[in-house]
Each structure stands twice: as structure tokens, then as C-alpha cells.
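sry for the spam today, last one i promise. C-alpha cells for design, 302 residues
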């Protein structure tokens, strides 16, 4: 048996599908022990976002990473994709899996969904991990992030998504990685952070019927005058309601959600810890997976 076959034989986390009513849900799951749910961010999936993190935790925990509705290989219904909608989905998913509570980990938009769940259904969340999370302050919008504003414009957004789908099919992989790094602030080895398997998965998702509508619906629910000017998605004022252990993990070079967001949240959450990962941007779980996993192991097993 060669090395690749040995690794395949010892894998604990596997891909599968479950049905939540009429919604067919793809997820990664495996391992035994206390349950840990991983929630991905915008334009991602459970198998893409957490590709470097699930397997190490399946030795001591039951890990579950669903693709949110509209993303990855989960169904993509014609609905309004909002934070409360995603939080209700995670709640239904947990009930379907027989979970009364779990440690919940969320990155970016996934972190804001995890916060929604912890604030509205606190009995479901035993521990909370927030990774470069939306909702802890006003995002910094620079030129590279202006595309989020563009896609809110009717027809323009659809054209942008169509261009992105086509570009993923013809653009060289090095170019795709460089463009993605401008949005995320990634400075690590991009061929590892966004390896060929990741790019193949990204192409597959962009080519899927329904993904463009789900992505645009999500962004348009987040980027609007009420959200931007009124702080509609900022839950800073409610952080003192969190009574559970909370771990903040932050890439120091995030161009969208600066470290100051995490530092302020740390002072407002009574039972919180903050780990800053230098040399990482918006996705420390992918850019610095070994360091990220060490921090997460200490928190979950402590």
C-alpha cells in the first residue's frame, strides 16, 4: 500500500448527503466524541473552507461541516439568503443530526451566522469560535473590495458573476490566486492556500445552476444602506450576552475586518480568548493551518 492509499484508508471525515425536508444537504462528517460544527463563509463550502482542519479534529471529536443552502453541493432554492435564514438552517441541521448542543466554529459570514445562533438559541452552542468574523464592526472597504458593492446593482451583479464563472474556466491558476489574494490579504504560499483541488472545486461551484442567484442574494442582504450605515449586522452591542467560552482567531493582515474588531470584541465578551495569527489575512484556517489547528485544539480540548 503506497502513501496515498494509506492516507485514504485512514481518513475519518467523509462526504455525504442528508435531506432536511425538501432540501438536499451536502456535508463533511466523521470522527467520534463531542460534536463540533464548522460553518463556512461567503462563496465557499464546508469541504473547501475547512479542507485543512476537519481531519485533525476527527481524532477526538465528531466533526460536521455542512454546505450552506445555495453553496457547495447543497441545493440552491430560490429564497432570500439572509443571516437569519442561514442560522435557522444550522439549527435544523443540528436537530436532524440529533445534536442538543455543539461547539460551533464560523469564519467570516459563517462567524456571523454562528453568532446569530449563539445569541438567539444559546442552548445550542456550547463553545463558540469566531474566525475573522463579520458583525464585530464596520468593514474596511478598499478598492479591491469594491466589487461587493458592484454586485448589488441589478444586472451588473449578474454580469460580474457570469464574467467570474468564465474567467475561472480560462484564466491561468497563478492569475486566479493573485486576484483572490488581493481580496483576502493572503500572503502565504498561494499554491498551497489555494491549491489545484480548491480551484477545481471553485470552478465547479461557479458553474452550478442556482449558485449565482444565492451569492447575489446573500451579498445584497449584507451590502445595503441599512446594513452599511445603520450597522444592521453589527452585533457588538449584544456581545455581553454571550456567557459561553468564546475563542477569537484572527489573521493579523485581514483587509476587510481589521484586528481592532477582534480586540474590541475580546474586551466585551467575558469568557473570551484572542489568538492573532501573524502572516495571515482573512483566512488563517487556510493560510496558516498548523497554527490555526493548534489554537483550536487548545480551546476545544481545554
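last one done:
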Amino acid at each position: 500500500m503506497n502513501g496515498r492509499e494509506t492516507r485514504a484508508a485512514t481518513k475519518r471525515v467523509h462526504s455525504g448527503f442528508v435531506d432536511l425536508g425538501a432540501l438536499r444537504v451536502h456535508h463533511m462528517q466523521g470522527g467520534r466524541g463531542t460534536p463540533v460544527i464548522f460553518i463556512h463563509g461567503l462563496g465557499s463550502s464546508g469541504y473547501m473552507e475547512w479542507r485543512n482542519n476537519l481531519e485533525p479534529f476527527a481524532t477526538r471529536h465528531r466533526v460536521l461541516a455542512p454546505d450552506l443552502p445555495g453553496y457547495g453541493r447543497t441545493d440552491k432554492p430560490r429564497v432570500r439568503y439572509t443571516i437569519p435564514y442561514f442560522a435557522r438552517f444550522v439549527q435544523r441541521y443540528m436537530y436532524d443530526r440529533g445534536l442538543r448542543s455543539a461547539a460551533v466554529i464560523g469564519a467570516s459570514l459563517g462567524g456571523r451566522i454562528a453568532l446569530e445562533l449563539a445569541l438567539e438559541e444559546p442552548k445550542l452552542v456550547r463553545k463558540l469560535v469566531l474566525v475573522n468574523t463579520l458583525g464585530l464592526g464596520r468593514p474596511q472597504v478598499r478598492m479591491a473590495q469594491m466589487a461587493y458593492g458592484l454586485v448589488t446593482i441589478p444586472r451588473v451583479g449578474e454580469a460580474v458573476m457570469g464574467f467570474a464563472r468564465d474567467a475561472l474556466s480560462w484564466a491561468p491558476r497563478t492569475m486566479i490566486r493573485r486576484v483572490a489574494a488581493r481580496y483576502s490579504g493572503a500572503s502565504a504560499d498561494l499554491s498551497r492556500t489555494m491549491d489545484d483541488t480548491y480551484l477545481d472545486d471553485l470552478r465547479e461551484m461557479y458553474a452550478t445552476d442556482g449558485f449565482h442567484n444565492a451569492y447575489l442574494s446573500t451579498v445584497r442582504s449584507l451590502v445595503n444602506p441599512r446594513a452599511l450605515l445603520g450597522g444592521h449586522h453589527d452585533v457588538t452591542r449584544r456581545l455581553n450576552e454571550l456567557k459561553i467560552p468564546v475563542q477569537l482567531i484572527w489573521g493579523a493582515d485581514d483587509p476587510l475586518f481589521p484586528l481592532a474588531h477582534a480586540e474590541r470584541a475580546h474586551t466585551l465578551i467575558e469568557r473570551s480568548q484572542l489568538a492573532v495569527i501573524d502572516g495571515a489575512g482573512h483566512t488563517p484556517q487556510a493560510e496558516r493551518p498548523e497554527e490555526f489547528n493548534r489554537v483550536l485544539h487548545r480551546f476545544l480540548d481545554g
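Residues 3-141+231-301 form a domain with the Rossmann fold fold (CATH 3.40.50.1820). ok im logging off now
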